[in-house]
From TrEMBL:
This is (6-4)DNA photolyase. Belongs to the DNA photolyase class-1 family. Residues 5-143 form the Photolyase/cryptochrome alpha/beta domain. The lineage of its organism: Eukaryota, Viridiplantae, Streptophyta, Embryophyta, Tracheophyta. GO terms for molecular function: deoxyribodipyrimidine photo-lyase activity; DNA (6-4) photolyase activity; DNA binding; FAD binding. It catalyses: (6-4) photoproduct (in DNA) = 2 pyrimidine residues (in DNA). Its EC number is 4.1.99.13. The record marks 329, 383, 406 as: Electron transfer via tryptophanyl radical. It comes from Artemisia annua.
Length: 516
């Protein structure tokens, strides 16, 4: 490798120093490295009509997490003799301006498979190649290159998570320790007339901070990610015996899983480093769990959705998506709003949606419960609408994983046992018979006796009065009868499956209309 004077490190995800091959490469043999992050207004347009502060695409919890992650990254870079150069604007324009202004000879950035980032990357790459700028864009957000998985599967994305390791084997980087830090980063050169800003506040980005009764559950950044990873893996036996889908979705004082997803989403934590840590722990236990249920395997589920998302045109839509069953979902915005705003009258569902809004995170089986209820279980609302709500409210919102799981939960792809429906009454009760989770997130029901906490509309009026919660006044009546609605959902999905089979998935708009 030749020594090149000016390199630019473009941070997008991968907001970390450890195991960051693009940053390591930029740091090698450069006289100057410019670490850049562009705050992209695409995600942040304020949405004043919405039910909580934030934009259509990114809610306040996620943006707070991002800003904290940038402050943390800036502080780590400063310790290495550098700093983060923050811009606000359309990332392609900003990047190209920096490349010109600073006479950059090498551009480094992590490869990203999300369609939005692919398009952005392509535009900047085109400019760089036309202008003789060396490009280094390694895969480090995922364990494997999704394109490699697809190639090994004969050019098609695998439709089964368990195929991943069979196709590509354990990753090559697994056998030697990944870098945990860097010694130093070459200094920034002259920045000329560029409009560099400090990491902005939420308010400066048009967000209103909603500090309610509880402080935010997550603190963004690599420092916190590594602390949480150490904490999660300190109980080695817990790691070795981890088994999903076992685990209590109602546990909120000490949630049943690692809660590392927001850190993986933004790349504050390297999934490869996490995988390596799990693998090391497994070596110490003969009877450790294995894929697809072990903790390490959860990262393979992530790979799976990345590979399928990357290899499937229109993965985020029903129409034009070859792996998605065509189902005549309804567009009932009132039902959608009742679900989104915790007004369904089913305490288990409403409490989960409160937790989602407040924390920006819910347990995997809680996601199952509310996604099933909205789509194939009860309300028959289009999965794309539920996906949008999750996209906005989850701190860990991830294009491939979110779309993949909504396809799964709505029985549109991957999983087809549409007769198996999560009951909005009995499923939560199995884990939390006293209803502590509901009382915490729906305090209006805090004095409801446990016999009625999952079905408060069945409580006699005298009990409702004593509990200070009159159903229909203080808390809604159920918006549907679960027994009736779930039977109707099964009937409609059964008919849609038949038609998909008959037409080989080529269901016309007219057929769709007839199914409604
Ligand atoms: P752990 O159980 O501790 O797992 C560790 C990591 O493995 C997670 O952080 C995550 O990166 C990965 N992982 C775990 N489960 C899955 C899975 N089923 N699919 C893919 N990767 C997985 N996860 C997201 O990260 N972003 C999303 O936008 C997202 N949307 C979802 C939507 C629906 C409808 C459903 C049912 C699930 C969704 N998930 C999503 C997957 C999963 O629920 C979360 O990854 C998990 O609950 C995060 O908690 P954790 O970090 O404690 O997980």
């Amino acid at each position: 490798m030749t020594t090149i004077s000016n390199s630019l490190m473009w941070f997008r995800k991968g907001l970390r120093i450890h195991d960051n091959p693009a940053l390591e490469y930029a740091a090698k043999n450069s006289s100057n490295v410019y670490p850049v992050f562009v705050i992209d207004p695409h995600y942040m347009k304020p949405d004043p009509g919405a039910f909580s502060p934030g934009s259509r695409l990114a809610g306040v919890n996620r943006i707070r997490f991002l800003l904290e992650s940038l402050v943390d990254l800036d502080s780590s870079l400063k310790k290495l003799g550098s700093r983060l150069l923050v811009f606000h604007g359309e990332p392609g324009d900003e990047l190209i301006r920096c490349l010109k202004e600073w006479n950059i000879k090498r551009l480094c950035f992590e490869y990203d498979t999300d369609p939005y980032y692919q398009a952005l990357g392509a535009r900047v790459k085109n400019y760089a190649s036309e202008n003789g700028i060396e490009i280094f864009s390694p895969v480090s957000h995922t364990l494997f290159n999704p394109a490699h998985i697809i190639e090994k599967n004969g050019g098609k994305p695998p439709m089964n998570c368990q195929l991943i390791l069979k196709l590509v084997g354990e990753p090559q980087w697994l056998s030697s320790p990944l870098s945990t830090t860097l010694d130093t980063i070459p200094p920034i050169g002259d920045v000329g007339n560029c409009d560099i800003i400090e990491v902005p506040t939420l308010k400066q980005l048009g967000y209103e901070d909603i500090q309610e009764d509880e402080p935010p559950i997550f603190r963004g950044g690599e420092t916190e990610a590594l602390r949480r990873l150490r904490e999660s893996t300190s109980d080695k036996e817990w790691v070795a015996k981890f088994e999903k889908p076992k685990g209590d979705p109602s546990a909120f004082l000490k949630p049943a899983t690692t809660m590392l997803s927001p850190y993986l989403k933004f790349g504050c934590l390297s999934s490869r480093y996490f995988y390596q840590c799990c693998k090391e722990i497994e070596k110490e236990f003969k009877n450790h769990t294995d894929p697809p249920v072990s903790l390490r395997a959860q990262l393979l589920w992530r790979e799976f959705f990345y590979a399928v998302g990357f290899g499937t045109p229109n993965f985020d839509h029903m129409r034009g998506n070859a792996i998605c069953r065509q189902i005549p979902w309804n567009d009932d915005d009132e039902l959608l709003a009742a679900w989104r705003d915790s007004r369904t009258g089913f305490p288990w569902i409403d409490a989960i949606m409160v937790q989602l809004r407040k924390w920006g995170w819910i347990h995997h089986l809680a996601r199952h419960s509310v996604a099933c209820f909205l789509t194939r279980g009860d309300l028959f609302v289009h999965w794309e609408k539920g996906r949008d709500v999750f996209e906005r409210l989850l701190v860990d919102s991830d294009w491939a994983i979110n779309n993949g799981n909504w396809l799964w939960l709505s029985c549109s792809s991957f999983f087809y046992q549409f007769h198996r429906i999560y009951s909005p009454i009995t499923f939560g009760k199995k884990y939390d018979p006293s209803g502590a989770y509901i009382r915490h997130f729906l305090p209006v029901l805090k004095d409801m006796p446990k016999e009625y906490i999952y079905e408060p509309w069945t409580a006699p009026l005298s009990i409702q009065t004593k509990a200070n919660c009159i159903i229909g006044k203080d808390y809604p009546k159920p918006i549907i009868s679960h027994d009736v609605a779930s039977k109707e959902c099964k009937r409609k999905i059964g008919a849609a499956y038949e038609l998909n089979k008959k037409t080989n998935g080529m269901v016309s708009d007219e057929d769709m209309q007839n199914l409604r």
